[in-house]
Write a structure and sequence with these properties.
Layout lengths: L1 H32 L10 E5 H7 L1 H41 L4 H50 L1 H4 L3 E5 L15 H16 L1
Parallel strand pairs: 1-2
Length: 196
């Protein structure tokens, strides 16, 4: 029984060693003979998501829209802030000169406090809305990229396309598996055609 176990273990060990050798020696041969645009035998490639997003024309268009909204929000907030500051200065000037009664001063303080609270609420709402719009924009861009890859999977002929970015689970990728520029060029071409 002990000899049978040793014999089976030896056969299994040799089988694993042969498979290991065949797998890695075959990959090296196809990797050396394959061109940069050919499909690796593993069927895996990666795209640097940060590069694609920050060089994608759609990102710049959406970002410009978002920046315009941010500028309008800042202008609205500054306008209302200036009005509040003018009212506060006017109140302080009249109090210092003794031109209003205590009852009138109390009413104006309440009105200024209410105006200040409205400014804080407006600022928080504008900030929250802009953050939400930025998150939606980023999701829309990633969805566009993912949909594009799915619709054009025949062009890429990979089983998996991984997304590599700073802090992602893909820490390293062989340069031969990087299809970032190919995907970026195709995305920009498609987006520009749709934009027209």
């Amino acid at each position: 029984m002990k000899k049978l176990t040793i014999a089976l273990f030896s056969v299994l060990f040799l089988a694993v060693a042969v498979l290991f050798y065949l797998n890695f020696s075959g990959s090296k041969k196809s990797g050396k003979n394959a061109g940069k645009n050919s499909v690796p035998s593993q069927g895996i490639a990666f795209v640097n998501i940060d590069t694609v997003i920050y060089k994608f024309d759609m990102f710049f268009d959406r970002r410009a829209d978002l920046m315009a909204k941010q500028k309008n929000a800042e202008a609205e907030l500054n306008s209302k802030g200036s009005l509040y500051q003018k009212n506060a200065n006017d109140y302080q000037d009249k109090v210092n000169k003794g031109l209003i009664t205590r009852a009138d001063a109390t009413e104006r303080e309440k009105a200024l406090y209410q105006q200040q609270q409205e400014l804080v609420t407006l600022r928080d709402n504008l900030q929250s809305n802009l953050m939400e719009e930025e998150q939606v924009m980023n999701r829309q861009i990633v969805e566009y990229i993912t949909s594009f890859l799915e619709a054009n999977k025949a062009d890429y002929n990979y089983q998996y396309i991984l997304g590599k970015s700073f802090g992602s689970v893909v820490l390293y990728g062989d340069g031969g598996l990087d299809i970032t520029q190919k995907v970026l060029d195709a995305l920009n071409k498609k987006y520009q055609a749709e934009k027209k």
